[in-house]
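CORE FACILITY INTAKE
Project code: CF-77B
Contact: R.S. (postdoc)
Sample description: multi-component assembly, two entities in total
Requested service: structural model of the whole complex
Turnaround: standard
Below are the sequence entries exactly as provided by the requester. Do not edit them.
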Amino acid sequence: MADPFDADAERVLELSPLTLDRLGDIRQFLRVTLAELGCAGATDAIVLAVDEVCANLVEHATDGISPGPTRVSVRRSGIDAIIVVEDRGHPFDPADAPAPDLVSDWIDRPIGGLGWFLVKQMVDELSYDSVSTAQGMLNRLTLIKRGAASASPSGPV
Amino acid sequence: MQISISQQDHVTIVAVAGSIDALTADTLVTALLDEVAAGRTRLVAHFGAVEYTSSAGLRVLLSTLKEARQRGGDLRIADIRPNVRQVLELSGFTSILKCFADVDSAVASFANMGGNK
């Protein structure tokens, strides 16, 4: 178990399999972990970003295959929070997510399509890679929230 | 997530508590669309106890808003916490969804709407 006083230690939540009823567990893990890491002020932003990522994995990454294990890890680097989500589903690079419609009138506004937009709004950096392994695909999404350890709890996300 | 439904001045108030995510959104949209289908198209979503919403909550709101308006009613939202309001604002929802500080104001806003079409 990670030393709760070691701010640099990586905290990990393994989900096997990842299902929608684990989203609440993921949010709780992040709230506790980010508080331990001194990043409580960035909790709302990181919780939303990771929740969207994991919901997408459940809803889109396992079509036609058994859901595999998913690993969510959080660590601090200086004042930044780094969150890594690893999964073994179908690869999807968030750079390929279509731009959302934020301006059409209600009747023309499409329902959905905002998840990746919100992820990108909530973090400062996002990188993705996908490799083929003996156990199948391994996809890794890295989210970086700059200044997470200095953000005010009541400040902007 | 908990949902409770009440009536006030011919307006249906749907009070939601807890978190709206990809798991719970289906329950909420079913509850809201059931109201619309029953002809109760003037709806106020009371979000004072909504601690969290993801984009799944946005899908719920837009689905309901479209159904209600196409039947001559509307979905309005009241008492939104700052973190939830920020999600609505970032997503451009505050330009299409009428937001009120409290439930009474949201209910009163329907008085100017006239009869259902």
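Facility notes:
- The two ends of chain A are 29 Å apart (CA to CA).
- Chain A is about 25% helix and 25% strand.
Invoice: internal transfer
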